[in-house]
Amino acid sequence: MRKRTFFALLGAVLVAVLVVGATTGCGSKKKSSGKSPIAIQIFPADTNAAIALLAGKVDAYFADATPVLYYMKKNPGKFEIAGKQIEAAPEGIATRKGDPLGPKVKQAIAALYANGDMQKILAKWGLSQFALSNPGSATPISKSSGGTITFCSDTTYPPMESLAGGKAVGADIDIADAIAKLWGEKAQINSTGFDVIIPALLAKKCDAIISALTDTPERAKQVNFADYVTVGALLMVKKGNPAQISGLASLSGKTVAVEAATTEKSMLDAQNKALAKGSK
User: Domain residues of the chain, as ranges?
Assistant: First the structure.
């Protein structure tokens, strides 16, 4: 009787130890950090991503500094920046590998900086702070007999490119026009979804891309870049920052709006991978 009771008690103690170990992680190599992933809401059009924040459907909107500052200016008192600018990087006009148009575009950008036209365009759109510090030396430009240069552009990204009355407007549009003018030609803008903009160029649906396209190593494997501005990324939140966001590391469990195929989307994906790795 006493032996049975002893073993019964011993069994109960062992069960209790196993239960405690399972709930606290004792005896296990894996521990939960309690970090939830970022809920990423992806939009084909960047304007809709910004609207999602305005409507209170997300905690933050993540994009280049250019549209973030534009929306803040257009909606005074409604938004604020959370944290600091993230990963300033060059943005460039993209051309197909081996296309002689690429060196011509680089030459044209240097010429626009040299004659002051680039600075005037950037100032017109409130983007002077994003000008290149070293745009390169200008060389003589040879004009053609007058043709058309077709640019693919995601016209949902003000103030870089957007539609007004069905017409493309913005800093990139003015830059495209200025480049074409240097060559004695005209610029034509083809509105193209950002997630398919590089495939459209490679399929020869346009001659070049001008669309706030960040010059990244991954993209540079597919296209050549002629850089013309340097821009970082910003997190925009509602005034008062109700979700208490302070940067990428604070986005665990938050909902963030972002445009498809952007570098910001890639950064959010990388942050989620880091959160998942930290939970093991």
Answer: 39-87+234-265, 89-233
229-244 pLDDT per residue, tens: 999 999 999 999 999 9
Q: Is the pTM of this model over 0.90?
A: no
Interstrand relation of 167-169 and 161-164 (parallel, antiparallel or unpaired): antiparallel
Q: Domain spanning 89-233: which CATH class is it, in words?
A: alpha beta
**Mean pLDDT rounded to a whole number for the chain:** 89
Mean pLDDT, rounded, for 165-191: 97
